[in-house]
Amino acid sequence: MTVREEILQALLDLDQKDLNLGDLSQRTMKNPEDQGLYLEVVKGVLSHRLTLDYYINQVAKKNKKIHAPIREILRLSLYQWIYLSKIPSRAIVYEGVNLAKKYGHKGSVGFVNAVLRRLTKERLDPEKIQGKTWAEGVSLRESLPLELVEYFEKIYSRQWTEAFAQASNERPGLYINLNPLKGSPQEIQASLEKEGLVIENRATKGTGFQVIKGNPLKTSSFKKGLYYIQDQGAMEVVDFAMKGYEKGTFKLLDVCGAPGGKSIGASFINPDLEVQCCDQSPEKLEKIEENIKRLGLKNIQPLLRDGRKGLPGEREAYDLVFVDAPCSGFGLFRRKPEIKYRRGLKDVKNLSKLQGEILSRSASCVKIEGSLIYSTCTLTLEENEEVVEDFLREYPNFYLDDQRVLLPQEGRDGFKMFRLVRKR
Ligand SMILES: C[S@@+](CC[C@H](N)C(=O)[O-])C[C@H]1O[C@@H](n2cnc3c(N)ncnc32)[C@H](O)[C@@H]1O
């Protein structure tokens, strides 16, 4: 398969096999030189899908139903024309038509040829797309669904929404959290460099490093558990949660724990923690087991539990309880652009109900003066502030001690976090 065919196949598999960008990024090209183009175009087409479709729909006949492979061929070709300006129009049309020959029929070959010729006649600049309203303009330029543009405009501001929409298409940095059980940061950095992995201490936390060169999944140091791959935003949630618990023996209950990131980050900060890391999904529980085994962490016990009912028996037993809740994930578009088209405001109501139930049930596990940390990787009010307000109304024996927001426009995944402390 040529690299463009691999890209097409990946884009088709995404929807047909319900995969995500992370799954597609694991595929390796036969020719290593093609890997960069593959990753760039797959991520780019997903991030900019609405913009690409805007142009395609202008040229394709109105109401014409375009079959999935043909639409993806147009999207991936047009992406290269608009966003990778070095590829000449001739090459784009030629490659697109070749793909259509294999994945379409005679009519669709002519259609792809005509559409691509029209669209590559001149340079297209998405910045110039106006839309009928301000919100539609942002939606089409930045490929953020219209309902989300309107929602964020209403609860934040136009400036916030535009900055968020733009940042959501950026390429996120790759970060790793070094495992203090396996050596000092300097020692680990030196062994990684021998394997061609170059890292720099750019994250805000002591053991958080940015990967500058190399694939951190493909080293023997990864297999030996020298680090955990984690966005710096997620590391900052752990820092927030662990404030005051950095030293000493404490019991931590991680209610929505898989694949274990927050429990692992917390154990890197304080190895004396005794952690029970729960999740309701058996497959995801295996991921926790896999991760803690690889990292050699003996203080974390994975448990299959539904946070709405069956949390570990002892009441009021934990110094710290994390509820890193299942959520709409609107803070993760940089890393998981497919979420833009899979989830919407219609999901928010059910999620906030689930979040409220999990948080309420978790409250009974928190010791007097202990902390309940509620966090999400989304930025809606319904899944954050409103869940916390409802909780505080229901549980006046807790107070809100602190809260923080991280935004993609600050170069990290978007998170909201709240520390609720149980009163004396
Ligand atoms: C945001 S993820 C957790 C990420 C994890 N804390 C980390 O840092 O690696 C939310 C998790 O909640 C789990 N989950 C969903 N509903 C749940 C429930 N009712 N009880 C417990 N876990 C649940 C999901 O399986 C998912 O793994």
What does this entry look like structurally?
- Strands 7-6-5-8-9-11-10 form a seven-stranded mixed sheet, with helices on both faces. It has a four-stranded antiparallel sheet with strand order 2-3-1-4, with helices on both faces.
- The termini are far apart.
- It has helices at residues 3-16, 21-25, 35-47, 49-59, 68-83, 89-103, 106-119, 134-142, 146-155, 158-167, 185-194, 220-223, 232-242, 261-269, 282-295, 339-342, 345-363, 385-394; strands at 175-178, 198-200, 208-213, 227-229, 251-254, 274-279, 300-304, 318-324, 366-376, 398-406, 415-422.
- By secondary structure, the chain is of the alpha/beta class.
- The structure holds S-adenosylmethionine (SAM).
- S-adenosylmethionine (SAM) is lined by residues 234, 255-262, 278-281, 284, 306-308, 324, 326, 358.
- S-adenosylmethionine is lined by residues 234, 255-262, 278-281, 284, 306-308, 324, 326, 358.
